[in-house]
Amino acid sequence: MIMAEVFKILVINPGSTSTKIAIYENEEELFKKNIEHPTNELINYKVATDQFDFRYQTVMAFLKEIQFNLQELDAIVARGGALPPLNAGAYRINQSMVDFLKERPRADHASNIAAIIALEMSRVLGIPSYIYDAISVDQLTDVARISGSPEIPRLSITHALNSRSMAYKYAQSINRSYSEITLITAHLGGGITLGVHHQGRVIDMISDDEGPFSPERAGKVPCVPLVDLCYSGKYDHRTTQRLFRGKGGLIAYLNTNSALEVEERIAQGDQEALLIYEAMAYQVAKGIGELATVVKGKLDAIILTGGIAYSDMLTRWIIERVEFLAPVVIIPGENEMEALALGPLRVLRQEEKAYEYDLLG
What we know:
Elements: E1 8-14, E2 18-25, E3 28-36, H1 39-42, H2 52-65, E4 75-79, E5 90-92, H3 95-103, H4 112-125, E6 129-132, H5 160-173, E7 182-188, E8 192-198, E9 201-206, H6 223-230, H7 237-244, H8 249-254, H9 259-267, H10 271-292, E10 301-306, H11 312-322, E11 328-332, H12 336-348, E12 355-356
C-alpha cells in the first residue's frame, strides 16, 4: 500500500482588523486562531506595511503558544496583497514581490504584510512560500476597465480569495460547475467588495473604494468635493488617504468599526446608528443592482458572505432590495484559510503549477 505524502502548511492572513493564522496537514486543519486588533492598536501606523513587526510577532506568538515545531512545515502561504494584475492561482513569493508591496502597492491594504512575513520565515526555514488568489486577481473584460478618465483606469482589487471560494462552494452545493453559473458575490467585512462571476471568471467588480462604504472605508464619494478637500490644505496626503481608508465608513460616522456595537446601539434606540447602518446595506444593494446589468440580469444567485453576513439585520435589508433579481444565499464568514491552504497543497502535490512572479506581475 502506497502511503499518501503528508504536507504541513502555515497560513497567514492579515485583515484590516485581525490576523488569522492556521496550520493545515493536507486538507485537515490542525490549529487556527483569529486574533482581533482593536482600532487603537493600529491607528498610529501610517500604512499597512508599517505593521510588519507587530504582525510578525503576532504570528510567532501564536506558534509559540501552540508549541509547534517550525521544522515540520513544508510551505507557507500568505494572503496575496495589492500587487499588479495577476492570474488566479498560486504565485511564489520572492523579493521582487515584497519590494513592490513595500514601495508601490496598488492600494494600502493589510494583506500587503502577509507576503513580507511569509518570505522572511521561508528564508529562515528553507521552504517555499506562496500567495494564492491575491486581491489583485484580474479577469475584467476590456469594457469593464474604462473609468471615465484615461489617467485613472479601473483596477481589479477585490476579496478574490473568499469570493471565488464561496462561489465554488455554492456551485458544488447545487451540483453544478463554477464555470456554468452566473453569480454576484458581496463580501461584507472591514472592507466591502462585490464581483460578478460568469463562465468561471470575475468579469467585473466593485472595489472597496468605488462602491459601498464599510466599517472603516468611505467607499465611493463625490469626486468634485473630494478634489476640493485634497487641495484645501486641511490634511496632508497620508492623512487624507486615512480619512477614506481606515477612518471612513462606520468609524467616521459612529466612531466604531464594530457592526455588533452598532446593532447594540440601534437596539437601545440610537437613530443615527440606525440611519448609517441601513445606509450601508442600501449601498450594498445598489452595488448588486449595478453589477446585475453586466450580465443583463441573468443570474443564478446572489451570495452574501464575509463576517458581517452573520448580521440578520443587515442581510435582511439587502435581501429586501435585491431578491427580485435572483435567489439570495447567505454564506457568512469566510472560507479563506482553507482556500489558502488547499491551493499550495495542490502545488506541492504537483496537481497545479505556481506562477513565477516578476515586475510585470
